[in-house]
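Title: Comparing notes on inverse folding

I've been comparing how different people in this forum approach sequence design from structure. To keep things fair, I'm posting one structure and asking everyone to reply with a full sequence. Here's the target:
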């Protein structure tokens, strides 16, 4: 049975406002009752923000941008226009932040929405994995028109997580309840596959050569999806029950892995099959997100240390950047040259480290 997709009329409001209070957050990602919804937009209020994005500093510097209270931001994706998209999991919206002014725009995604991941596709549009809608969602960057690609009816409540485009323009995605799948944006055709070992598929990424890998949090493995058979080939990691959470490639095709349970970062080299692991700084690290920048430096978020770390594979040394929120709980990282962005899900604010 083919997928169902539908287009919703766009609705958004632009606002500036005062910094929000922190809200509780845990690894289960159970959502509290939101204080802002797609149809109940807070009144605009002034906020002090820089009038222009500062030039990258000589030393890395962390800056914070408040967003509406109750947003519970999960993932971020720098936009082609210089702004930053973010998923507001608590209020069922896609948000857009202007780093120059602090302006925020909010696009409701539909009744029941609870968006998780957001990436920018080859078409320049944000693509969202929405667990509440059990659908892939595209938002037109200019008109803000919302298009919803529902999963097949025999795949309810897959707990959609993250997405990645392969080099052929297909969108691959994961569902924590035991699936991975793909969507052809050109036709709307969608296929969903059972993951080895059942529940767990979480982060997903595409290497420069076009290979798609995902991480299984509950399964404690990573997997490569065979482009001919669509089967997921499991790659075991040295540490038992390490909790592989997210994955990201470097420029030569190695796959970096954040190991949540073990508090480690790992790298898998497909050319040799070798895996190496390093423990994050601190007494009780919890490695959540991983991102590799244009210089092949590896960035990780650490719930245990309430920090973002930068790892240099050449020196095997870490730099640590404490978060502003207490806790901050940054669940994902993405960037562009000179910047790495995250969302403090427990503090309703976006963070950027300019380097």
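Reply #1:
Here's my take.
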């Amino acid at each position: 049975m083919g997928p169902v997709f539908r287009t919703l009329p766009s609705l958004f409001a632009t606002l500036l406002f005062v910094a929000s209070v922190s809200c509780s957050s845990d690894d289960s990602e159970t959502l509290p009752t939101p204080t802002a919804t797609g149809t109940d937009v807070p009144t605009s209020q002034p906020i002090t923000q820089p009038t222009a994005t500062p030039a990258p500093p000589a030393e890395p510097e962390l800056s914070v941008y408040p967003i509406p209270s109750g947003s519970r931001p999960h993932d971020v994706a720098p936009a082609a226009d210089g702004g930053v998209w973010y998923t507001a999991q608590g209020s069922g919206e896609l948000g857009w932040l202007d780093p120059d002014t602090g302006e925020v725009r909010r696009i409701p995604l539909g009744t029941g929405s609870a968006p998780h991941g957001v990436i920018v596709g080859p078409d320049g549009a944000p693509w969202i994995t929405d667990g509440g809608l059990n659908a892939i969602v595209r938002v037109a960057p200019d008109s803000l028109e919302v298009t919803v690609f529902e999963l097949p009816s025999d795949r309810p409540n897959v707990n959609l997580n993250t997405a990645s485009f392969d080099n052929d323009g297909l969108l691959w995605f994961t569902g924590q309840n035991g699936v991975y799948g793909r969507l052809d944006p050109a036709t709307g055709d969608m296929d969903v596959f059972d993951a080895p070992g059942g529940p767990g598929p979480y982060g997903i990424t595409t290497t420069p050569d076009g290979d798609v890998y995902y991480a299984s949090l509950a399964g404690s493995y990573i997997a490569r999806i065979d482009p001919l058979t669509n089967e997921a080939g499991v790659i075991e990691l040295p540490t038992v029950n390490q909790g592989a959470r997210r994955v990201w490639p470097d420029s030569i095709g190695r796959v970096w892995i954040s190991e949540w349970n073990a508090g480690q970062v790992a790298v898998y080299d497909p050319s040799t099959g070798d895996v190496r692991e390093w423990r994050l700084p601190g007494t009780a690290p919890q490695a959540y997100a991983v991102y590799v920048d244009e210089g092949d430096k590896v960035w990780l978020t650490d719930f245990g240390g309430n920090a973002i770390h930068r790892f240099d594979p050449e020196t095997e040394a870490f730099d640590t950047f404490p978060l502003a929120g207490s806790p901050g709980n940054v669940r994902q990282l993405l960037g562009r040259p000179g910047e790495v962005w995250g969302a403090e899900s427990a503090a309703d604010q976006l963070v950027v480290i300019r380097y």
